[in-house]
Every structure is written in structure tokens, then in C-alpha cells.
Amino acid sequence: MSAEATNPEAHPEARPELRRRGRTRLDLRRLGRAALLGPTSRDRLPDAIGHVAEAHRAHHPDADLSVLRRAYLLAETSHRGQMRKSGEPYITHPLAVTLILAELGAETTTLTASLLHDTVEDTDVTLDQVREEFGDEVRFIVDGVTKVEKIDYGAAAEPETFRKMLVATGNDVRVMSIKLADRLHNMRTLGVMRPEKQARIAKVTRDVLIPLAERLGVQALKTELEDLVFAILHPEEYERTRALIAAHAGERDPLPAIADSVRTVLREAGITAEVQVRPRHFVSVHRIALKRGELRGSDFGRILVLVGENADCYAVLGELHTCFTPVVSEFKDFVATPKFNLYQSLHTAVATPQGHVAEVIVRTRQMHRVAEAGVVALGNPYATASSATAGTPDAAADPYEERVDPTRPGWLSRLLDWQQSAPDPDTFWSVLRAELAQDREITVFRADGGTLGLPAGASCIDAAYAQHGEAAHGCIGARVNGRLTSLSSPLSDGDTVQLLLAQDASSGPAAEWLDHARTPAARIAISSWLEAHPDRAMATTTAARAPLSVIGARGGGANAVADLPNAPVRLAGCCTPVPPDAVAGFVVRGGAVTVHRIHCAAVAQMRAVGRTSVAVHWRATADCRVTLLAESFGRPHLLADLTEAIAREGVEVVSATVEPPVEQRVRHSYTLQLPDAAGLPALMRAMRNVPGVYDVSRA
Questions:
Q1: Is residue 132 annotated as part of the catalytic site, yes or no?
Q2: β-sheet bridge partners, residue 596
Q3: Which of 107, 119, 158, 425 is most buried, by the most CB atoms less than 10 A from its CB?
């Protein structure tokens, strides 16, 4: 059987301080035995699921409970005679899992599948029977949960079995909702397992299931799982944290008084709001203790303000920052910019005249539901409007057709995309854990108006592979917010990125790209290309070469004349003036006159050090010498193409220097002799039109 059973009283979670506030722990052992005593009247629900029905009706007043009654009777009959390891009737497990989901606000279809989630695996009930009795939607979810339940949590089996879990979750997020509730009940009752098995299951819960709960926004499950894992894997830190909380319970807590002050402020402002003090869970207290060292009285909880509308959130924030001293560094707006897991709230902290600092969370009641239950609070993502309201499945939909899930966040879509291309289970497993370790997501805008969802810290390389797939092998640069940047540049939330692809089909990624790729799709694609092109991979890591210089045969003279007889004149290399630029001349060491453009920064420096100024004018001849800098992305034949473009304009190359590529960017410096200074703009345009060249400027 899939459920792990123990004596609840033997586990730390059975202690009162770890229980969720406001929830009475049911005696499921008693309820389970009562379920075995005989049939229940047909016109009422069995007593054993009365608590489930009550919790479900609190969220869905019009729900049809007859479906739950039939599901319970089938589950109880099927599991009759089966016992958990703790000696409880097995039916207590699906009952407990269903109660957890009912309290979170799950719709009827999810609760029906939850009651039946172990029947196909552990009894003679078949998926066809489930379909005949409850429809395709329930059968689809039960099938998904059954596949997930078959996971062997041994280290060798983890990669492939979690790949199956990911696919099942992608097909219907309700599958993972049931799995998380199932794991929570098993973790609550883990105490009689051998210590090594407890630790193994707790580690998998920590590494994969808790991050998945965070990604799906199911905070109520995530926080309790964190505390249970904390107690098993870090018993000493857990005991110290428990002692801190116990010691605080005997002291005067400043938060209730601060909450009263907040209520008074909001009442006087005419804002209808509910103000609560929310105690922190164990892991949260532990993290605050590590961060701040000595804990303050107000560190053991936060103030929660619930309002009716989004606009009320900002009205509350204004009153708080007006009547209290705000701690500016603690302010975060997740209402205007929700987290990747649907979470929305305003976070701030205020200081009272007595010197207490309290963290405050402001959200609407709907935001609160989603913050606690995540995707569970959104109901059936595949139902029509009418059936979603009633909490029943959409019979018209074919659950085995490809679905577009409105609750599926970008990270899940990305994982589903790349898991098919992962070359081996070990790569999948390592990249999955790295992806789940990312706790923030950003949205960047594409040049064509679309958007890309990426993990925080993603670079232009990640954006390239997210947008273009394997075609991103030929990416040679990017513009972020209109400015050219290297592919390794990290992206920020709200950036606009334009990716530049090489027209040369032979272009490929450099090995250094792996140092800047954060997404699984990018890393797998780059690694696969480098393995398929070992010669190119070696070439990208060779030592930097010295600059390539090409010197022309003709020296050429300056066509500027200084009002200083017999003084040699040379054009400054810092600004390379050409006719008809306004220029200034200065006498330098050796009696020579250097000519600068009038706006060159060197002009001010010359005057500051007292250099002698000399009037300078241009000769009547139209030819001139100029130095141009060309910046481009590296590609084969680039130097030849640039030289050809210069020659087509009738310009002579006096000298040229090509610096070694850095991150596929190449810098060229050309000293050119132009027959006519008026042709300079056309020459610069011709050089910019060479594929791969992104900027040409005067030196």
C-alpha cells in the first residue's frame, strides 16, 4: 500500500504547537472504526465524512454531496479489512487526505478523486469502474494519482519516477494537489517508521514536494510539511526553536496591541478590514533567528489585514505609512506584480512609538484564499463556467485530449517542455532540483510584443532558447531595453529583449554559455550541441590571440593647416576630426600642433594645463583621414566583408586592428583615407549594413 502509517502521537507534529490554528484534529481512528460498524441510511451522509461535507459546504454551499457519499461508500467497501501499520482502518487515510483538501476549498471533483485515490492501486476497483460511476474527469485524476503513487522513493528510482510525477502534474494540477495532501497525512503519521526511512522520505519531501507545493502556491500544505521535515532532519535546531517559541509564550506579546492600533487607524479612516495576528510557523521562526540573531517580541508573528477590494489594499498601506513609521526596506508590492505561484499581497513593516517593529501583510479575502490554497482554490480549471460553479466535472470535455490549463504557471510548462529532451535520468534529476530551487520568476517582453517567463537570474542566453529553441545556437547578441548587451547579461523583471541571430547556419554556442545559462532547456541544448561538435567546443576555449593588425602602404598627411609657420600638424587620435568639423589646435611637446574636434574632452584638458592654443583651418582639398571603430559579433569572413564594404565606397585602408573576440563580440579599428569628407556618413552606413556589425563610430 502507498500510505505510510504510524502512531500520530509519536510524531512531533502531534504536539499542539505544531497544529494549524483554528483546526480541530479529528480522531480518525474512531471515525474509521465507526465506518466498519455497518451500512448508513441512504438519505444521509455517513458520519465518517460529516466533517468533510461540513468543510466542503463552507467553501461551496451549493455543492452536490451525493457524489461524495457514493465515493466514500465505494472507498470504504473496497478498503474494508485493510489496516494501516498503526492499526487504524485504512479508510482513515483517504478520509484525512480529503478533509485536508476540503479545508483548502477544493471542488467536488477533486474530493471525489481524493476519496478514491488508493482504490485502483490497493483494491480490486478498476479505472473503468471509476469512469462508469463518476465520469471521465474523476477517472483521469485517479489514474494520474495512481501513477504518482507507484513512485519508488529509493535513490536510484527517483529521477525516472519524478519525471512521471511531473508529467502527471502537467496533465492536471489537481493530481499534485492530492499527492501533496497525501504526503502531508503520511508525514503526520511517520513516527513508527525506522529513523533511516523517516530521513529518506523527509529528504525527498524537502527536495521536491515542498518546492512543488511552493510553486503551486499551496502555502498551507507547504508550511506544515516544512515543519515536519525540520523536526525529522534537524531535531536539535527544531528543539531550540520550540524552546524559543515556548519562552515567548510566557512573555508579553506586543503584536496584539499593535493590531488593536491598526484596527483603530483603519476604522477612523473608514476602511472596512479584518485584522489578525498570524503566528509564524517553526521554520519561519528558525530563519528569522538565523537572520537577526536575537529575536524581538514582534518577530514571532505578523499582522494580517484582509480587505474587500484591490484598491483597499493601497488605502490601508497609505494609512499605515501615515500613522506609523514605515520601514522602507521591507516594502514589497506583490499585488501589482504577483509572484510566479499566483501569490498577491502587500508586504510592509512599521515601527510604533514604543519601538516595536511589526511586519504587516495586506491582501483581499480572495488573495488570502489563493495565498493559502494556491491552485486548489481555483477549482476545476477545465470545467465550463456553469459546471465550475457547481463543482462538477465538464462532461463535454475529453480529458484525454491536450488541454490548455489556465492555472499552469510558466515554470511548469518549461519543465514539461524540456523533460522530454533530457538525455538521461540523472541529468533530468539534477536539473529538476536546480529548477525547483529557484524561488522567483521574472517576465520579460519580446521585441514582437510577446512575453517570456523565466526564473530569476536568467540571462539573455536563457531568453534565446526559450524563444527560439535550437535556433538559438546561432544567437550572436541581444538588445535589452534598446541597448546592445552581451548574451551573458542577466535579465530583470519587465525588461524588453531583442535577440539577434546569425544568418550563418554554421554558428553555434560557446562553451562559456553554460556558465550563464540558468534554465534546463538552455543548458541541455547547449551541452548537446557541444557534445555533437567537439572540435567547435575546443575552438571556443582556446587562448586569446594577439590583436590582428593590417597596415596600408600609404602614410598620408593631415589636411589641416595651423596658423603657426613650419609647425607640423597631426590629427588627434582620440576624436579624429574631419572636414567640416569645428576644430581647435594646441602646441604640444616638440612644437607640433595637434588638432581636436571642438567638443573633444581633451580640449578642456589642454586648456586646463595651459597648452598654447593655435587657430586651425581646413585645406581646400576635400580628402581626409579618419579612424572608425566597428563593433560586431564574431562570425567567419567578417573582416573580409567589412573590408569589401569599405572598398566599395572608394576608401583606402591605411591601417586596421582586430581585437580578439570576447563573448563573441569583436572590436575593429580602421584608419581610412577618404577622397571626400562628405562621403563619411555613407561609409559608416555601409559598414553598419554588414551582417553582424551592430555599431560604427568615430574614434
A1: no
A2: 584
A3: 107
Tens digits of residue pLDDT in 110-134: 999 999 988 888 888 888 889 999 9
DSSP string, 303-328: EEEEESSHHHHHHHHHHHHHHSEE-G
What kind and span of H or E run contains 266? helix 255-268
Q: pLDDT by residue (tens digit) across 195-221?
A: 888 898 888 888 778 888 887 888 999
Place of cell 585645406: 619
Q: How many other C-beta atoms are found inside a 10 Å radius of the C-beta of residue 206? A: 17
Asked if residue 285 lies in contact with residue 241, where contact means CB atoms within 8 angstroms, the answer is: yes
CB within 8 A of 382, min separation 6: which ones? 137, 172, 393, 394, 397, 399, 403, 405
Residue 143 has φ and ψ, to the nearest 5°, of -60, -45
Highest-confidence range of 408-412, 432-436, 536-540, 681-685, by mean pLDDT? 681-685
Task: Find out whether 93 and 118 touch, Cβ atoms under 8 Å.
Answer: yes
Instruction: State the DSSP string of 630-658.
Output: EEEE--TTHHHHHHHHHHHTT-EEEEEEE
Query: How far apart, in whole angstroms, are the C-alpha atoms of residue 532 and residue 526?
Result: 10
Cell of 415: 519543465
Quote the radius of gyration of the chain (alpha carbons, Å).
Answer: 35
Lay out the sheet containing 693-698: strands in order across. 548-551, 652-658, 665-674, 624-633, 693-698
Q: How far, CA to CA in Å, does 373 sit from each of 25, 50, 113? A: 19, 22, 18
Q: What is the spatial distance between Cα 367 and Cα 344, in angstroms, rounded to a whole number?
A: 6
Catalytic residue among 13, 118, 122, 143: 122
Helix (H) or strand (E) holding 59: helix 50-59
| Residue 4 confidence (pLDDT) | 38
Report the distance separating Cα 370 and Cα 346, nearest Å: 14
Percentage of residues of the chain with pLDDT beyond 70:
74
Q: Cα separation of 12 and 188, whole Å?
A: 8
Say if residues 562 and 569 touch (Cβ distance below 8 Å).
yes
Annotated active-site residue 122? The verdict is: yes
Q: Count CA within 13 A, CB hemisphere, residue 135.
A: 17
DSSP string, 429-449: HHHHHHHHH---EEEEEETTS
**Amino acid at the residue 437:** A
The 10 Å Cβ neighbour count of residue 681 is 9
- Say how far apart CA 121 and CA 123 lie, in whole Å: 6
Q: What is the pLDDT of residues 383-403, one digit of tens each?
A: 544 444 344 434 334 433 333
Mean pLDDT for all residues in the chain: 76
Q: Which of 17, 121, 649, 663 is flagged as catalytic?
A: 121
Instruction: Dump pLDDT digits (tens) for 544-589.
Output: 444 444 444 333 335 777 787 777 887 777 777 877 778 888 887 7
Cite the beta strand spans of 124-271 per DSSP E.
none
Task: Compute the distance between CA of residue 616 and CA of residue 236 in angstroms, rounded to an integer.
Answer: 82
Give the integer Cα–Cα distance in Å for 417 and 280. Answer: 37
Burial 3-39 (b: 16+ CB within 10 A, else e): bbbbbbeebbbeeeebeeeeeeeeebbebbeebeeee
Is the pLDDT assigned to residue 539 strictly greater than 80?
Answer: no
SS3 readout for 191-218: CCCCHHHHHHHHHHHHHHHHHHHHHCCC
CB 346 within 8 A of CB 317: yes
d(CA 396, CA 413): 25
Work out the pLDDT band at 365, boundaries 50, 70, 90: very high
Lowest mean pLDDT among 184-193, 272-281, 365-374: 184-193
